[in-house]
Design brief:
506 residues; 58% helix; two-stranded antiparallel sheet; mainly alpha; single chain
Length: 506
Amino acid sequence: MNINKLSFFNYTTNNNTASKSETSVNFKGKRNKTVTPPVYKDRIYPAGDLFLMAKKDVKKPELIIDEFYASENSRMLKNPLGVSLSRFSPKDKYEILQYAEDIKLHRSGFSKIINAKNDDKTYRFATGEALTLFFDAGDKIEKYPDEFKRILNEKDSDGNPRFNSKDCSLLMQYIALSKLYPQAYSAVLAMKNLRAEDVINIMLNDGEIIEENPELLDGVKQLLTQKENANNNTKQLNSILKKLYIQKRTKIAEEKAQERAKEEALLLEKRQKQKEELARIEEERRIKNEAAAKIRAEKRAIKNAEEKKIKEAKMQEWNQKVGWIPPEQLFDKVNTAVNNKTPLILETGEVLPDETRDKIAYYINRSAGKSQKIINARYKNLQPIFNEKDCCEILSDFDSYFYPQYMSSLKSVRRDGTPVFSAEQCKELLKLKQNYRDEVINSYLLSTYRNFSAEDIVDIMKNSDVTIRYDSPFRNLIIQKNESGQYRYSVRECIELSRKQLEENK
């Protein structure tokens, strides 16, 4: 089986982009995180089923999954992000492209994230980590690329990368602290055994003290650099620094005690203002993101409305061309004719026998839901499968048709947009009572070892007792070729030979 020739052209996939990840952090030793992964709905043919179907045919069926995602990615705009995704697998690219509109807002920040590497040239962040980090701090990374690089380059005492994706997100969200207190930030960040939360907590509580009195940090460095029990050590830092600060001020002069008290009051006030400023910045970011989301939603609504209008116009054009009428109109016409005992006249002017009219009325009143599915059935190019006369023919003998709710394979179209199966062929296939009709038909439509015509597939399905049977020689016969590379037998000949061999083996 040649994987490169496998086509997903006849599949239709509807993707609904999920809500993006949002992360909020409270610097009291806890992080609250809500991440909602993308949701993919209503695939006509799930990738998992493809994988199971391919197990017997290929050595590496996982390549079909890769091609599935590659096919889905090709439906989207070519590299809509302005960012190279070459390092990602088709599945990872597919996940990333669900957030294309958001990534475009800060594409430089996203590029910095996905291209970050370890010392051994491997990429630093996996797909999920990269997306979470982007939604948490992509704007900050775009604005402060050097600070992001600085954080990535930090190593712990063992020489390993110090911060994971969550730590990087936390530090970048509060990167403004490095601008407020650059020396203090550098000094605290240099203490290799501090966690990201510890760095932020220290900067929020003591950043200004350390910035103005860097020598005070020497008195507590040993405490902070102790690898064991580092969390408890950082909890003691605030009180220790304050004590050292007060001692220093006391040594200068006792008479400055009142002034010192005023300065501490101002310091506390300034800290509060800084926290309020950070809160204001975060609120502005939230408002900005909400405004951007609203604009995107409005654009999507306009686009959907335009697409719906185009689709309705196309359907109306097909309705007139094929001679199709909606179920409600047909039901009303039939019931009126029955109640008034008048002939049932089609839109073409053809008059149906009263016996046919009464049978139609019986079935549409007994099975209205299934009747509607037959009438509403359309090919993937929006063309109705059955015209008014076809529908009446089916409804007048409805018990001869099976599983009208499972017609996805019958709706297939060719590359040029024309239907694979004619209305008559669809009626023949609907008369076959097979639970897995769609799956079997699709397996032949997507076959990579032989191209089957619509007539071939109908013939195969009508002779399922020899074509689908497990021990039938049919599947071996249809792949046999002669010396010139042509198939040895037609599908009809394969069916007849299979039947003959099975009868001989009885």
